């Protein structure tokens, strides 16, 4: 272990065991009362100060080894980061303070909010009682301090969430529960809030007899006394405090029928949904154990589904907390993939994330990437290789999009010490990153871990992970030393050394390019064929001029599909513009029809009449297996793309071809797309995308397009039946209210049958693609609108065992896709007048249908109120596109607390977009009030994230909302969320998007202020930091991680020399 890594942790003690005892829980007062006892082993001589983490707590007393009322100081400098009296209002000074103040309470820097002063007589008493023979070593490990802290937590803002319904009915009382919200353990009990301080745990919780407690560890005892129950858990596998979880409520439980080690908990009345949703959980657990050739080190595993969690999935040691909305009945198809993916990810964290943890925030990417890597391997096994590759490509596109539009991502969260670099998001601490940044960084981490897997091989990768698991397992043995617990956390450098030791391959260059640096390359390629030399002349350019791009140095696979087969070659990219000559293995054929061998091993007949007679190249693919995170723009003829789409079986190749064919509207492209859409051998997502591209081509050729849209014909042929008694002529009659009524067409809608999930997804999505069709007047053809109304009115699901909720929701979305602003012929604000005189009949029909479906969903709710969500989105489109003056109070009503959370989120997102388009100060104030006061944390967080994606204005833009009122309101929100780093960081990102890092331009110039203001603030905090002899501390840092203390000391001495 290198000296640089050993010096990352500067605590002067090691924690061996911690007892957490919750003696009282009050839902009415929203408070916890209890105490915690820490068993501490000092690592330095003259150990006189203990620094722990504790925020938003009330500390009553501290006891050390039976000595009560020990002196302590309790101060949280993070509350002082923002002040309403601060006239600067600039992010640059705020970020400097946040960075410095975070260091002052960082446990890995030996700091904390709670400082305990060990009495002098107690120090002498403990030192005298410890037997020591080794003068040089002082045997400090035999000195033990048992520190007991009495505390309470009242009305927490974060850390613990109390869900308490407003009414006091019996059902509402059964619904009351509390749970831990994230990995900030200091927010609900005193601890060492570090990922690299594992300890064994005893957790005792006393609650009412009607309540159930679920906590990290194994339940070893449950006693009842005077209508109170005490649950006692013991976690023998060392775990850091951030991964200690707790949930208390009137839970119902079900034990997995395949293994008794897995238990699932939910609220009252949801047991049927719980049983259906969690029936598969044993599968990923068995798969991970088989893959890693190692058992899960926790004796059991619990899953708790709660209301209003801070995230959909929060993993803890031996348990995980999920959003109750992940539960679904067996009749809902759509919810399966997402729910199983979330639970598979939580189980992967039981191996890498909670059991083996990160050493510091700069190693966050490694554990997050490994957990996502294992989860993706399971989804590949469960849902197939095509789904796996599709999600992989989607993640890569998301990463590229974020780096281009927002911020380049550097996975190594190692802040630069120079304060001048704090404006660069990559130079900030990991705890200062926004949610969107961390989400994109997690996807990039997964891609990088997969690149490592490709570089060293899958079998070797599994051996490395097995080695890490085996080393960590030895640290959990009863006779294992405290220093061996360093094996329970890994770093980027230690992982690189393990790879180098087991494979003799060096991944340092890969880490340097993709972890320690930000950005991703943008490649532009093209090729020509030289018949005279029979070579392919390939040219690749690297565009480094755009945001988030960088130069790539490394190898790249080129796959050429020729007439004689598919051939792969590896080239080396070194310069910005590089030309390569690839040997061609085929000759130009005179006979145009012959079977062509493909990379899959199949041989297909191709019509080669359209290809260049002088070129035997069918198509070329660059990096076909996504071994590099890159943006690719490749130029080849439309015939090449058509052949690639039609005959290549890899879905990534087909998606590339579909994207390219948007630029080639022609009859041949139409025929190719129609053939692929009809092919039952193609992956359903390819066929869906093909329908969208076909609509795009039709709109590009609107002036010359003849015949019916191929997607419409396909849908009628596959999902509808022919009515021979009727002609295809639409007979339209006008009723008294001017609403068009369409008689049944020659094709009638079949009774729903969703037994084939892939065909169901096609049936559900293609109408949305059809709805985007436009004629030469740039409006949706009446035939398409009538077709959609047929699907809605004649939808029949009585004999289908699956729910049609999402299908109906998709049809409503399709109605919204037909809207254009051509239908508006007046600017009147009178709704009745607008509907009766100024809107075309189709727009009025859509408006009436949306109101009908919205009211119907109130009477018979759809699953997750998905129909209501779609109706609200279409109403918003009617307001924005068609100009119908929808009352804003409709969206206020659906955003009210008590509505289903997905409906609330949809309404809030619409209100945010209203701010962006209409610049409404009242709506803006309403959104700010929701962020500040709403009970649902997840809703508040998602509102801020949506504001970041749809800000009302950006820096230096002139806007009525760009005023001091907005600045003051946003600044106050940032100040109020002092205990919640996640929302505060998102608000900081929003502030930066709208006002930049410097003082906002709309504010008057500030008075002359110097850096002394900031320096004085930092000095006030630094005065509370107790200095420790640095030389002695460096020595014991080494001793903390080395089994042989003397060898560690010698190494330090030699380094100093």
From TrEMBL:
InterPro entries: Aminopeptidase_N-like_N_sf, Ig-like_TAF2, Peptidase_M1_dom, Peptidase_M4/M1_CTD_sf, TAF2, TPR_TAF2_C. Residues 282-469 form the Peptidase M1 membrane alanine aminopeptidase domain. Residues 518-636 form the Transcription initiation factor TFIID subunit 2 Ig-like domain. Pfam families: Peptidase_M1, TAF2_3rd, TPR_TAF2_C. One of its GO terms (biological process) is transcription initiation at RNA polymerase II promoter. Residues 638-1009 form the Transcription initiation factor TFIID subunit 2 TPR repeats domain. Keywords: Nucleus, Transcription, Transcription regulation. One of its GO terms (molecular function) is transcription cis-regulatory region binding. It is found in: Nucleus. GO terms for cellular component: transcription factor TFIID complex. Belongs to the TAF2 family. This is Transcription initiation factor TFIID subunit 2.
């Amino acid at each position: 272990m290198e000296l640089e890594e050993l010096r990352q942790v500067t605590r002067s003690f090691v924690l061996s065991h911690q007892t957490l005892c919750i003696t009282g829980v009050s839902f009415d007062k929203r408070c916890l009362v209890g105490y915690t006892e820490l068993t501490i082993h000092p690592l330095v001589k003259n150990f006189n100060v203990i620094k722990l983490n504790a925020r938003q707590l009330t500390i009553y007393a501290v006891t050390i080894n039976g000595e009560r009322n020990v002196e302590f100081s309790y101060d949280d400098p993070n509350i002082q980061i923002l002040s309403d009296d601060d006239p600067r209002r600039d992010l640059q000074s705020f970020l400097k303070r946040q960075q410095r103040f975070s260091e002052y309470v960082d446990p890995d820097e030996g700091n904390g909010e709670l400082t305990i002063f060990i009495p002098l007589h107690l120090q002498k008493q403990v030192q005298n009682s410890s037997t020591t023979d080794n003068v040089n070593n002082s045997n400090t490990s035999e000195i033990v301090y048992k520190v007991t802290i009495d505390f309470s937590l009242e009305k927490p803002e974060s850390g613990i969430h109390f869900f308490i319904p407003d009414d006091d009915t019996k059902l509402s009382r059964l619904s009351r529960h509390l749970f831990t919200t994230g990995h900030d353990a200091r927010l609900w009990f005193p601890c060492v809030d570090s990922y690299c301080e594992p300890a064994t745990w005893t957790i005792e919780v006393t609650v009412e007899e009607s309540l159930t407690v679920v906590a990290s560890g194994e339940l070893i005892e449950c006693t009842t006394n005077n209508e109170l129950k005490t649950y006692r858990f013991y976690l023998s596998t060392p775990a850091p405090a951030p991964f200690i979880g707790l949930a208390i409520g009137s839970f119902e439980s079900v034990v997995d029928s395949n293994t008794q080690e897995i238990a699932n908990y939910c609220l009252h009345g949801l047991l049927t949904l719980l049983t259906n949703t969690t029936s598969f959980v044993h599968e990923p657990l068995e798969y991970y154990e088989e893959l890693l050739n190692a058992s899960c080190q926790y004796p059991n595993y619990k899953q708790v589904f709660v209301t209003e969690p801070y995230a959909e999935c929060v993993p803890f040691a031996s348990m995980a907390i999920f959003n109750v909305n992940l539960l679904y009945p067996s009749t809902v198809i759509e919810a399966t993939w997402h729910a199983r993916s979330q639970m598979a990810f939580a189980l992967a964290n039981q191996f890498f994330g909670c059991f083996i943890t990160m050493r510091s925030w700069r190693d966050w990417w490694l554990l997050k990437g490994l957990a996502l890597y294992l989860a993706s391997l399971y989804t590949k096994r469960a849902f197939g290789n095509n789904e796996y590759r599709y999600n992989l490509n989607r993640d890569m596109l998301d990463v590229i999009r974020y780096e281009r539009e927002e911020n380049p991502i550097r996975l190594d969260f190692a802040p630069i010490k120079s304060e001048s670099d704090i404006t660069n998001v990559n130079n900030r601490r990991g705890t200062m990153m926004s949610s969107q940044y961390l989400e994109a960084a997690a996807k990039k981490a997964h891609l990088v871990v997969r690149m490592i897997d490709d570089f060293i091989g899958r079998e070797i990768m599994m051996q490395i992970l097995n080695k890490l698991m085996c080393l960590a397992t030895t640290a959990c043995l009863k006779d294992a030393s405290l220093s061996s617990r360093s094996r329970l956390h890994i770093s980027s450098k230690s992982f690189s050394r393990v790879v180098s030791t087991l494979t003799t391959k060096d991944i340092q260059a890969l880490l340097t390019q993709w972890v320690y640096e930000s950005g991703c390359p943008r490649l532009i390629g093209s090729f020509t064929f030289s018949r005279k030399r029979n070579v392919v002349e390939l040219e690749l350019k690297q565009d480094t001029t755009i945001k988030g791009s960088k130069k790539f140095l490394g190898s790249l696979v080129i796959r050429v599909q020729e007439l004689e087969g598919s051939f792969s070659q590896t080239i080396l990219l070194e310069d910005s513009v590089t030309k390569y000559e690839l040997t061609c293995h085929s000759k130009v054929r005179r006979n145009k029809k012959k079977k062509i061998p493909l990379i899959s091993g199949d041989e297909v007949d191709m019509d080669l009449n359209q290809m260049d007679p002088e070129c035997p190249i069918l198509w070329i693919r660059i990096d076909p297996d996504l071994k590099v995170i890159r943006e690719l723009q490749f130029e080849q003829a439309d015939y090449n793309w058509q052949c690639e789409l039609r005959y290549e079986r890899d879905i990534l190749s087909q998606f590339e071809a579909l994207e390219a064919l948007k630029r080639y509207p022609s009859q041949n492209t139409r025929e190719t797309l129609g053939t692929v859409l009809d092919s039952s051998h193609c992956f359903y997502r390819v066929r869906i995308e093909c329908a969208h591209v076909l609509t795009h081509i039709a709109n590009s050729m609107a002036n010359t397009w003849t015949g019916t849209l191929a997607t419409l014909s396909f849908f009628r042929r596959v999902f509808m039946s022919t009515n021979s008694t009727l002609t295809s002529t639409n007979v339209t009659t006008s009723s008294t209210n001017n609403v068009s009524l369409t008689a049944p067409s020659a094709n009638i809608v079949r009774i729903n049958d969703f037994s084939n999930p892939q065909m169901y997804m096609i049936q559900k999505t293609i109408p949305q693609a059809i709805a985007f069709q436009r004629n030469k007047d740039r409006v949706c053809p009446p035939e398409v609108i009538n077709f959609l109304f047929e699907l809605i009115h004649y939808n029949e699901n009585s004999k289908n065992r699956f729910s049609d909720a999402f299908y109906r929701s998709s049809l409503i979305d399709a109605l919204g896709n037909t809207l254009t602003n051509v239908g508006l012929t007046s600017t009147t604000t009178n709704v009745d007048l607008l509907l009766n005189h100024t809107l075309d009949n189709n727009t009025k029909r859509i408006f009436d249908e949306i109101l009908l479906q919205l009211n119907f969903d109130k009477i018979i709710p759809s699953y997750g109120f998905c129909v209501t969500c779609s109706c609200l989105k279409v109403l918003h489109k009617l307001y924005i596109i068609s100009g119908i003056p929808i009352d804003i109070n409709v969206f206020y009503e659906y955003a009210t607390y008590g509505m289903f959370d997905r409906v609330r989120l949809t309404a809030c997102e619409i209100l945010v977009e209203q701010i962006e388009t209409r610049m409404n100060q009242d709506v803006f104030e309403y959104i700010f009030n929701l962020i500040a006061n709403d009970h649902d944390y997840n809703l508040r967080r998602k509102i801020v994230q949506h504001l970041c994606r749809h800000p009302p204005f950006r820096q230096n833009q002139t806007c009525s909302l760009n005023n001091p009122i907005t600045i003051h309101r946003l600044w106050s929100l940032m100040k109020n969320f002092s205990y919640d780093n996640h929302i505060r960081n998102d608000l900081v990102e929003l502030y930066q998007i709208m006002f930049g890092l410097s003082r906002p331009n709309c504010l008057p110039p500030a008075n002359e202020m110097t850096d002394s203001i900031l320096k004085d603030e930092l000095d006030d905090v630094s005065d509370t930091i107790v200095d420790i002899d640095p030389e002695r501390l460096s020595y014991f840092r080494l001793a903390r991680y080395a089994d042989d203390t003397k060898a560690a000391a010698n190494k330090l001495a030699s380094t100093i020399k």
